[in-house]
Amino acid sequence: MHYRGDGRRSKSIWAHEPILTPERKLWRAVLLQAFEDAEMPPAGDGTGTDPVEASEARQYLRADISPEAEDLKLVCDFAELPADRVVLWARRSYPQAQAQALA
Fold first, then answer.
1. DSSP string over 27-78
2. Mean pLDDT of 6-35
3. Residue 17: left (phi > 0), alpha (psi -120 to 50), or beta?
4. Would you state the torsion angle of the CA atoms of residues 42, 29, 31, 75, taken in this order, to the nearest 10 degrees?
5. pTM of the model as a whole
6. Does position 80 have pLDDT exceeding 80, yes or no?
7. Exposed, middle or buried: residue 90 (CB in 10 Å: 0-12, 13-18, 19+)?
8. What is the pLDDT of residue 103?
9. 8 A C-beta contact, residue 75 and residue 27
10. Of 17, 32, 42, 96, residue with least CA distance to 64
């Protein structure tokens, strides 16, 4: 909302702008690290298998196991990101059938 009274165009004090606190940035970095681990390339030893870290990160982001799902929800809450959307994205990006075929 803008006021024209004094000729200044400023944002309303009621405009919702998320504030990224250091704590929120930390929790977002935790999610980013999980994503980076999930994207690790296959091992260079010729077997073509994924590193353990990659499969564990994918499992975590997909929330395959109940305790991990609870942990992911807590991390997403701290990061102020919707956990259901993170899980939906991960399940589309890293299908479980693909993970079982690689194991």
1. HHHHHHHHHHHHTPPPPTTTT-PPPHHHHHHHHHHHT-SHHHHHHHHHHHHH
2. 80
3. beta
4. 150
5. 0.70
6. yes
7. buried
8. 47
9. yes
10. 96
**Single-letter residue type at 86:** V
Tokens of 103: 């194991």
Amino acid at 1: M
**Average of pLDDT values for 29-51?**
84
Helix (H) or strand (E) holding 9: none
pLDDT band at 1; cut points 50, 70, 90: very low
Helix (H, G, I), strand (E, B) or coil at 12: coil
d(CA 52, CA 9): 54
Which residues lie closer than 8 Å to 71 by C-beta, 6 or more apart?
60
